[in-house]
Amino acid sequence: MAEGTIKEHTEAGEILRRYGLAVLFVAPYLIFFVCFTVIPIGMGVVISFMDYNPYNVGAATFSGFKNYGYLFNPDSMVAKLFWPAFGKTMAFDLCAVPCILIIPLLLAILINTQPPGYKIFRAIIYLPAVTSITVTGIIFSSLFAGDESGLINALFHTDIQWLNEGVLRWAVMLFVSIWWQTGTNFVILSAGLRDVPKPLYEACEMDGGNKWTQFFKVTLPNIKGQINLCLFTTIIGYMGLYGQPTVLYGSDNQPNALAPDTPMIMIQQWLNDPTFAKRTGTLSAVAVVFGLLTMLVTLIEKVATKERKRGDKHERQFRSYTSF
Amino acid sequence: MKKSWLLVVPAIALLASCGKTDASVPATSSGAGGVSSAADSIKNPWWKSTGEIKKDSDGKVVYDEVAVNLVSVVSGDDLEPFKSIVNDFNTAYRGKININVESVGESSFEKTISDRVSQNSNPPDLIMSHQKGHKSFADNQIVQPFDEAISASGIAYSPNDIVSNLADDSDLGYSGHVFNIPVDGQSVVLLYNKTLMNKYATGGKLPENASEFQAVCQAAKTGEGSSFIPFSIPVSGNTFFQRYFVMTSLMQNNFAPYGDDYKVTWGTGNNKDAFVKGIDAVRNLFYGSSPVSSYGNGTAAAYTSFYNDRSLFLATYPWEVDAILSAYGEAHNNMSIEAVKSQKVGGFSTAGIFQADPTDANAYKIFGDSHAFILSKTVTDVTTKAACLEFVHWFINDVQAGIDWANAGHISASHYINNADAYKNDEYVKNYIQAYYTDINEFVTAGNTPYYTITFDELNSLIASCMDKAITDSDISSKATTSANKVNAAIEFINE
Asked: For residue range B350-359, what is the model confidence (pLDDT) as tens digits?
């Protein structure tokens, strides 16, 4: 018995010795992560199965999948608002994400050639990324205002309602997104480009490869990790599009809970309006479904960009090498 | 390794996309009593009372350093005047009651207050905000009525002390209770150029109805040349255009924003005709056979035109008038504000300018907002409740407070103040406030609807979409029907 206890104590001590320090280092983040991310998400999922009013919690009742039913009933108001908003977001993402990848990549390649003054250009390209979306909104609202205070209209003596017309407004948002986000991806891709081994370019050149061949056969494969990272974060970021449509609107399209631009705006508007307090359960269901859709899109992205060969290629090569 | 990565990816995506949202779902205190529907009486009060009121030999409540936290939606140019009025009260009640003012912006006011009260996290005691949001406060059990404070303190307050069209909403749909104490009204106001008015109005007399208004605008347009804009109004970047200006036109043309069941009928029957007429009355200013205004101007263009005597009328917020008068003086050899007021710029009203028939019962209606006081449910001490009521009672009975608040652009809703000679004879009240709001009894607000945000946000969007030059009456009717269906569907969904 005593021997068993000593053995248990020894095992516990061993576990503590082995993992204690790691747990200690991880604990601060873990506590916040659990308290402010895991639990709220869990609560959101639970609430999505209830009729729930945050101002009258005592009256909350279990409602099964009713809240999810609204999303998939075409006659429901929720479906009529959510799916068009989701569609608009996806359409915007299809335009925005490639632009926000290709433009920084081209700029990074250009800067990587180290032309005169490249350090200044590098700083200028990154500069917009440090501004907040609120500041960005003020700058571009001033530029694209539809009245005489709009700098672009004033410059060209035009009367274009940039922020009132539907397609024009989305085009402005695309332009703003490119301006704002290029710097972030540019930094990541620049770092990747600097790490591409120079001998590979020389080898390619010796094998008769021109600049295009070098780009497609050397550069791209070697910064694939960075491209995938940029693609992943940009897709997630733009699925949750919120800032740009919130700060860029004209007098004709003031925020309206019955005409949300994107799912995130729909969620925030409903959440901020006590009129919808009785529908917090439905709102949670919308958030959960939207989260699942985001997961689905990112999964598709990961599957589409994964290596056709097995990913442990280098590990297998190393094993075969060391097995001699 | 690869498979586990595939699980991590969606997990991160889920956190990134909906984590923030779900985290925002407010946790709340434990459940309250049963909720009464709008038309019901309150069966299970959700508020509590503790303590007893002490009274002196005269029967007046004894206050001993009672601190009251007042959260107000007032946050613009009128915030400082409001704080000054509260300071006057604090001085008068030194050692008894002290009101601390906190300002919360309109866009997040209802959510912020609802969360703070329901979570009992730094809740206000007294709330001053637009009356239109108070029905939602009551239905969500965020506020309590003043009933107990009135009965226990002996402070003589009755809804009859307030103009009836505003006081009618005091019960917020809970018959027999006093939840709401309205104190003022504000809407879009007009300024006019006295020199031009004397030149073009028949006998220098201010227009009194829509046809006289059109006549003086047309005369000024003809007399002053093509670049002259008789009626200057900032549209771009100004929410008051839809919220107040066009709404006033709709109300003058007998439009009803919603019915008894809160549903809307914007696209059917007489209400559709009223809507089209109201919209057309505004559109005629911009697109009539001889337009008198320019649609799409921003604030700078509209104001500059007025400063340079290139407009006869200017539409603006009442709390911006002082700044406008000052700027007008600067543009005219640095005239003093007093000189501008006496010689150059007068106050005028939107009453009657949109209704062709001046004998119509609604011809002189003005649509706007009314600030009202309401008591948070978190106030349990009955003396604190009485102290809140004491301040509100003072606000609607202290004539100087009424004058000061009127000078900040708000007409008093109190009969006592409106009838006081000092108020009536105040230069600003006499020449501007009473000119802006010709008859406070004609002042109307959004009233009591728990769905005011969805109703009026959609109405504002509808109004904006009807201002396009190419729109026809048929298009307006069609848009009104579509919008009405959306609002009604939303109301049904919320109540399902």
From this structure: 999 999 899 9
Q: Which of residues 223-242 of A touch B (CB under 8 A)?
A: 232, 236-237, 239-240
- The answer to whether A29 and B7 are in contact (CB under 8 A) is no
Cα torsion for A217, A220, A224, A227, to the nearest 10°? -160
Q: Check: CATH 3.40.190.10 for B66-186+369-425?
A: yes
Beta-bridge mates of residue B376? B143
Nearest to B18 among A41, A76, A278 (CB): A41
> Which of B265, B267, B261, B279 has its CA nearest to residue B451?
B261
Mutate to test the interface with A, among B4, B7, B9, B25 (most CBs of A within 10 A): B25
The two domains B66-186+369-425 and B189-367+446-495 share their CATH topology (first three levels equal): yes
Token pair of A292 as six digits = 């699942």
Cα Rg of chain B, angstroms: 25
Interface of A with B in 244-263 (CB under 8 A): 250-259
Closest CA to B374 of B158, B188, B131, B209: B131
Angle of CA points B266, B281, B106, to nearest 5°: 65
Q: What separation in angstroms does the CA of B404 have from each of B79, B408, B423, B437?
A: 12, 7, 9, 17
Q: Structural domain boundaries of chain B?
A: 66-186+369-425, 189-367+446-495
- The confidence band for B458, taking pLDDT boundaries of 50, 70 and 90, is very high
Give residue A104's identity as a one-letter amino acid code: P
* Model ipTM value: 0.79
pLDDT digits (tens, 9 = 90+) for B110-122: 999 999 999 999 9
**pTM reported for the whole predicted model:** 0.84
Q: How far is CA B67 from the centre of its chain?
A: 28
Residue A314 pLDDT > 80, yes or no?
Answer: no
Secondary structure (3-state) at A245: helix
- In order of their start, the domains of chain A are 84-262+284-306 (1.10.3720.10)
Report the distance separating Cα B326 and Cα B312, nearest Å.
17
Exposed, middle or buried by CB within 10 Å (0-12, 13-18, 19+), for B55? middle
Q: What is the number of CB-based contacts under 8 A between chain A and chain B? A: 206
User: Measured between alpha carbons, how far is B187 from A227 in angstroms, rounded to an integer?
Assistant: 55
Q: Which candidate, A318, A311, A95, places its Cα nearest to that of A224?
A: A311
Min Cα separation A186/chain B (Å): 22
Q: Report the alpha-carbon distance of residue A228 to residue A305 in Å, rounded.
A: 7
**Locus of tokens 């003058």:** B252
State pLDDT tens for residues A170-220. Answer: 999 999 999 999 999 999 999 999 989 989 989 888 888 888 899 988 999
The superfamily CATH assigns to domain B189-367+446-495 is Periplasmic binding protein-like II (3.40.190.10)
Closest in B30, B114, B495 to A57, CB measured: B30
Angle at B163 between CA B162 and CA B165, to 5 degrees: 125
Per 3-state DSSP, what percentage of chain B is helix, strand, and coil (rounded to 5)? Answer: 50, 15, 40
